[in-house]
Amino acid sequence: MPAYLRLELRRLARDGGYLMASLVVPVAIYLFLGQGSHGDLVQNLVGTAGFGALGVVVTNGTSIAEDRSRGWLRLLRLTPLSPLDVVVARGLCAMVLAVLPIALISLLGAFYKHVPLGAGEWVATLLALWFGIAPLALLGLSVGYLCEARMAQVVGTLVYVGLSLLGGLFVGLDSFPGWLRALAKFNPVYGYGEFTRKVGEGGAPPALSTFVLLAWTAAFAALAAFAYRRSGRYS
Amino acid sequence: MTKSAVSEAVATDAGAPAVSCEDLVKSFGRVEAVRGVRFAVRPGETVAVLGPNGAGKSTTVHMMLGLFPPDAGSIELFGMAPEKAVRAGRVGAMLQEGQLVPRVTVGELVGFVAGTYGSQAPAVPHTLELAQIADLAGRRVDKLSGGQMQRVRFALALAGGARLVVLDEPTAALDVESRRQLWKAMRDYAAKGNTVVFTTHYLEEADDNADRIIVIAKGQVIADGPAEEIKKAAGGRTVAFRHEDQDPDELAALPGVNEVKVLHGRVVLTTTDSDATVAALAGAGLPMRDLEVAGADLEDAFVALTSASAEGGAG
């Protein structure tokens, strides 16, 4: 599995265009967002870093559909490599990729925007940003295994943009109508943002969003396992 | 996916056939792709699975490799379920379709696949050499021509040093010289005691490169044996000479003759034993100017065999 993970990471490292493109939007958004209160500064940092991380874990997933259409998944299946190792390595790829936007936005936050977080708060924020993206990485894998290549792109974009907007990553939920606000609380991206903000502000992990994140992790892990098994029959 | 306790227990593959297909059946929707295919391959054999497009060759190969299960029937490779044999590193495979994954070099890809087989894999440069792609080692696989890609896929099948290599239409998209090289590499690989199963619809490839030919048409095995035997089954050889005043009945009575035809001023005898036929012709003092003896080529054999099966005959 380490050999497979290395190969996939090497492939990613050679995809400079993709890596740049996946960083440009969150960085641009972050630079355009104005300064504000302490709360706004943390909100903007978490919102854009989370948005960037979401983008790369979703596209990592949808690229699986492309790999399948090229026969790569089938080729892997014909080697002694364990199928589970392949899925796990792809999930780890997503987690490695997520480091890039999180690190870049955080560096900008610390040294350019001067987000006033203490060292402990920074560590907590970074860890929350990183671990919290895991359920969405699983969702990305599911989309990649469930959909054909072009469909995966569309679904991936819908997930990326839709969940970000409805999850209040940029705009607080206050501007939403009541029913949407109630619904948003169960959005995994809302849970992700809320969890990270609270933890970043030095608070205890909020119960509801912790629960929402854990529940979605379980649900998306099950979905990814199902999607992977289903795709095995056709790959 | 449910494996019986019995097949689980047969972990040893000593003496087991390299491939054993029992009455395989597979349908896709209402299309019956494979309808009762049954054959076995002994370790060390090189077997061609020959048939026209749509005969069910690829479906059979995919099931052999455990890519999807048969609707009915069973497959074992070295006495194991296919997925298990693949996981155990017993199988190297080359499938037809699919480009290669972008942004890796030929050397990296072959090295990676070899690595998944552990210590049994031969050195990567050796495999690259064998597949005639040593000069491409540093090239990105997505920047290769179709023929080069085909050779890379062949290298991937050999990279693990597996005892069974399965090649689905390995020479599609290759030019004549590359084809020749690929078959030579394949024969070298087989000569080391490995088992090779390949599909083809190039008839002379089956004839030239396999110990045995399994002819598949319409999802069924219609012939299985050495190339010579298959040609014989389909009418053997032809003896032709100028048409003069020979008596057709006398010709038909000659030893070995199945059929007498007159075409463009020439008599064409189809015979199962051309030596005996020619000897008898000479013995009877029949005129046979411009004598030609030819093996019915596999193409003829193939057409005869497939049309026989199409007529629904039990034979």
From TrEMBL, chain A:
All copies of domain ABC-2 type transporter transmembrane, residue ranges: 6-190
Q: Please name the InterPro entries in this protein's record.
A: ABC-2_transporter, ABC2_TM, ABC_2_transport
| Gene Ontology molecular function | ABC-type transporter activity
| Any one GO CC term of the record | ATP-binding cassette (ABC) transporter complex
Pfam families (UniProt xref): ABC2_membrane (PF01061)
Q: What is the membrane topology listed in the Swiss-Prot or TrEMBL record?
A: Multi-pass membrane protein
Chief localization class? membrane
Residues annotated as transmembrane: 12-33, 45-65, 86-112, 124-147, 154-173, 207-228
Compartments where located: Membrane
GO BP terms, alphabetized: response to antibiotic
The record's keywords, sorted A to Z, are: Antibiotic resistance, Membrane, Transmembrane, Transmembrane helix
- The name this protein carries in UniProt is ABC transporter permease
Organism expressing this protein natively: Actinomadura physcomitrii
UniProtKB/TrEMBL annotation, chain B:
Q: Name one Pfam family in it.
A: ABC_tran
Query: Where is the protein localized?
Result: Cell membrane
Instruction: Pinpoint the ABC transporter domain residues.
Output: 19-243
| Entry membrane topology | Peripheral membrane protein
For molecular function, the Gene Ontology terms on record are: ATP binding; ATP hydrolysis activity
Query: May I have one GO cellular component term?
Result: plasma membrane
Q: Which InterPro entries match?
A: AAA+_ATPase, ABC_transporter-like_ATP-bd, ABC_transporter-like_CS, ABC_transporter_ATP-binding, P-loop_NTPase
Protein name as catalogued: ATP-binding cassette domain-containing protein
Protein's organism? Actinomadura physcomitrii
